[in-house]
Amino acid sequence: MSARSHMRLPRRERGLAFVLVLWVVAMLTILLGSFSLIARTENLQARHMFDTTQARYAAEAGLNLAAYELRKSDPMLRWIGDGRPYAFGFGEAQVEVRITDESGKIDLNGAAMGDPTTLINLFMARGVPQDKAESLAAAVKDWVDPDDEASLNGAEVSEYRAAGLSYGPANAQFNTVSELQQVLGMNYELYTKVEPALTIYSGQQTPNAQYAPLEALESMPDMTPECAQQIIQQRQAMNAGDVPVSNEPICGVSVGAVAGGGGVTYSVQSRAKMPNGTSTTLDATIRMGGVNTAGRPFVILRWRDGETS
User: What are φ and ψ of residue 253, in 5° steps?
Assistant: First the structure.
């Protein structure tokens, strides 16, 4: 018998060795696939982070450009704060900026201490029944007024306790619009519907129709959703200094000539979108003025990072 025949493995052992080789090859394939998947995932995450950062800075560029355009000395050249979109390119990003003059909104503190009709109309326009809207407006008043006596259908400490809440009304002015969510009877769904119409910076109980967003327009007396949309369409079809084709009031409201800028405080929403769909939205309220201690020609009163997708 030759030496070669002595070295040959039995058939059963050769079968086991073949199976072992297959298992090793399978394990290596799985490991290589896992490493490839991890590397791809990390690459996508890094790319998304890079694109998000680019979009973020592009959105900030939109905010700063809005401030620059609002500071122009010629009112006919200023951007108009009535919510119309202004679009431009910044690097690879496409940026859309919308500016709302705060004089077009309802001052929450002013409305709370003044005629409740504005708040009642605002709540009713967002689908709240009249009786509940009246109670909610009274609760807003009781949140602000300094006494502990509840208004008719309003709410002071005892009503908050009865509702199982551990706090009562502040008996002071609202420091932020979001504080409205703490008022008895307010819920998050309703708050998101009325928040675009509200401010604490204008000092005006009723909105300026030249700049008011839809929600604020609908709080005006005898206003309908159709009339509010018509006012916005007529307003945004004009440039600064243009005179309306018709001077006929719409639901009792006359828009008049549109001027670039009405006050000194503005809400600016800046959204930047990258070619692959990554986007970032910034929402800030700024007050124009001289150069401040930070070296900027405006002061940021409110800052909110919006959605990133």
Answer: -115, 125
> What gap in Å lies between CA 22 and CA 33, rounded to an integer?
16
pLDDT at position 210 is 86
Token readout for 26 is 């399978």
SS3 string, 220-231, reads CCCCCHHHHHHH
User: Mapped to the 3 state alphabet, what secondary structure does 107-164 carry?
Assistant: EHHHHHHCCCHHHHHHHHHCCCCHHHHHHHHHHHHHHHCCCCCCCCCCCCHHHHHHCC
Q: What tokens appear for 150 in the block?
A: 């509840």
Helix (H, G, I), strand (E, B) or coil at 286: strand
Q: How many helices (H) and strands (E) does the chain have?
A: 9, 7
pLDDT tens profile 222-251: 888 898 998 888 888 887 766 666 667 777
How many C-beta atoms surround the C-beta of residue 58 within 10 A?
A: 25
| pLDDT value of residue 125 | 94
Question: For the chain, how many residues are written?
Answer: 309
d(CA 297, CA 71): 8
CA–CA separation, 296 and 201 (whole Å): 20
Residue 309 pLDDT grade (very low, low, confident, very high; cuts 50, 70, 90): low
3-state helix, strand, coil in the chain (%, to 5): 45, 15, 40
pTM for this predicted structure = 0.79
Angle of helix 117-125 relative to helix 130-144, nearest 10 degrees, comes to 130
**Pairing mode, if any, of strands 198-199 and 265-273?**
unpaired
CB 123 within 8 A of CB 107: no
- Beta carbons within 10 angstroms of residue 61's beta carbon: 18
Instruction: Find the mean pLDDT for residues 133-151.
Output: 93
